[in-house]
Amino acid sequence: MTDIASTNTAATGPASSFSMVEEPLDLVRLSLDERIYVKLRGDRELRGRLHAYDQHLNMVLGEVEETITIVDVDEESNTQSVRTVNRKVPMLFVRGDGVIL
């Protein structure tokens, strides 16, 4: 009979990335040089390659695609129109206090 605890501790190789995750920022570390999705305050979304980060979740992203969602309200007819603005940026510094997800 195999003990579950001994099975989990025996898996320490590269195939078991879960054993390397002990803190939330460890997940970010595993995403270095990978394309990531970042949701920001103010209805902004970023997709780009993660080059660097710190404990405050400040990030340096490359090859960034930014999407901004804008909701306009017409006060006379009380209707809403939603539009998105897209732009591409070669390199971007993201301040950590604006990161939601």
Give the mean pLDDT: 84
Instruction: Give the beta-strand count.
Output: 4
Coarse structural class = mainly beta
Helix-strand topology string: HHEEEE
Helical residue percent band: 10-25%
Distance N terminus to C terminus? Answer: 42 Å
Total number of helices: 2
Shape: elongated
Low-confidence segments, given as residue ranges, are 1-13
Largest sheet: 4 strands, antiparallel
The portion of residues forming beta strands comes to over 45%
Radius of gyration (CA) equals: 20 Å
Order of strands in the sheet with most strands:
1-2-3-4
Descriptive overview:
The protein is mostly beta strands and 101 residues long. It contains two helices and four strands; from the N terminus they run H-H-E-E-E-E. The protein has helices at residues 4-10, 24-30; strands at 35-40, 44-53, 59-74, 79-94. The chain has a four-stranded antiparallel beta sheet with strand order 1-2-3-4, with no helix packed on it. It is elongated, with a radius of gyration of 20 Å. Residues 1-13 have low confidence and may be disordered.
Fold blueprint:
Blueprint: H1 4-10, H2 24-30, E1 35-40, E2 44-53, E3 59-74, E4 79-94
Antiparallel strand pairs: 1-2, 2-3, 3-4
Describe this structure in a few short sentences.
This protein has 101 residues and is mainly β.
